[in-house]
Amino acid sequence: MNAEATIDNPISDSALSRNRMRDTVLHAITRTAAIGVLIMLSGVIITLIHGSLPALDQFGFSFLHTESWNPVKEDFGAAAPIYGTVISSLIAMVIGVPISIGIAIFITELCPKSMKRPIGIAIELLAGIPSIIYGIWGLFVLAPLLQHYVQPALISTFEHVPLMSSLFSGPPYGIGMLTAGLILSIMVLPFITSITRDVFETVPPMLKESAYGLGCTTWEVVRHIVLPYTRVGVVGGIMLGLGRALGETMAVTFVIGNAHRISSSLLAPGTTISATIANEFTEAVGDLYTSSLIALGLILFLITFIVLAAARLMLLRMERRSGA
Question: Is 10 exposed, middle or buried (0-12, 13-18, 19+ CB in 10 A)?
Fold first, then answer.
């Protein structure tokens, strides 16, 4: 017995040593990767702050609420791009979120089994289309359709309706804030739909079958069982889509009109932070012009960070409220 133990122990010790070494290497690699992410993020923040200092020193707080953007006179303000970024993203969410959740409900609750896979693949393919393709399609197909059919109808319909008349006023250009919001709603749709569908499928079948057994309709099951059970995941998917909408560049650049002005009309041309940077960075002459564009990047970073942080706080509050 002692002889066997004497023979086995070196082998066991060697195996344990190898396992410990592998664990140590794995720990070092993963820790390095995690720290690397923090270093890269810190580098981005430091670069944006350092690059935007000349513009922030020159214009101060007025940079945030000034609409003027005049490279010739070197007079810059971020109000119009900030307004365009927020409004186009809101339009995308207002249109895209109900459609995305509706598609997810159809796939998980109502769709015939033979159609689930084709529809799911089609949704995922939408996410893989490059944004410039959406932009070209928006410029040459969607914008003319809106210009000739949709926008004139909206103008005539809401012409005498208070508040709505200012939202849908002016000439129908085709391109503008509404068109950009529509393109963004299509682009965020696959992200929200895929995540929502996945979380809907985590609902235990017993819960739904019990509700159906009590005589609930599909709508009642979705409203009282599926949505409350998955609300955290659904909100997370919506926030992911909002983050995509806030930072989208190429597609928006094609259809928004790239005009540095704030208009109450959704049909008027505008611009976003990312579109302004993409359009003008290669043409920026002078430190102040370049610094102003970098300052726009810093503002976009802060907006995205605030949105994601608010979403995280909201999810934490929802988890605490549900007793998780």
Answer: exposed
Neighbours of 189 (CB within 10 A): 21
Nearest to 184 by CA among 258, 264, 276, 249: 249
Q: What angle do CA 256, 257, 260 make, to 5 degrees?
A: 105
Q: How far apart are CA 251 and CA 144, in angstroms?
A: 16
CB 80 within 8 A of CB 319: no
Neighbours of 265 (CB within 10 A): 18
Answer yes or no: is pLDDT of 113 > 80: yes
Whose CA is closest to 272, among 292, 294, 291, 296? 296
**pLDDT digits 0-9 by tens, 13-62:** 788 888 889 999 999 999 999 999 999 999 999 999 999 999 999 999 89
Task: Answer yes or no: pTM beyond 0.90.
Answer: no
**CA gap 246, 273 in Å, rounded:** 9
Q: Please give, one letter per residue, the 3-state secondary structure of the chain.
A: CHHHHHHHHHHHHHHHHHHHHHHHHHHHHHHHHHHHHHHHHHHHHHHHHHHHHHHHHHHCCHHHHCCCEECCCCEECCHHHHHHHHHHHHHHHHHHHHHHHHHHHHHHHHCCHHHHHHHHHHHHHHHHCCHHHHHHHHHHHHHHHHHHHHHHHHHHHCCCCCCHHHHCCCCCCCCCHHHHHHHHHHHHHHHHHHHHHHHHCCCCHHHHHHHHHCCCCHHHHHHHHHHHHHHHHHHHHHHHHHHHHHHCCHHHHHHCECCCCCCCCCCCCECCHHHHHHHHHHHCCCHHHHHHHHHHHHHHHHHHHHHHHHHHHHHHHHHHHCCC
Residue pair 78/295 in contact (Cβ under 8 Å)? The answer is yes
> Do residues 222 and 109 lie in contact, with contact meaning Cβ atoms separated by under 8 Å?
yes
Spatial CA neighbour of 80 closest among 215, 320, 257: 257
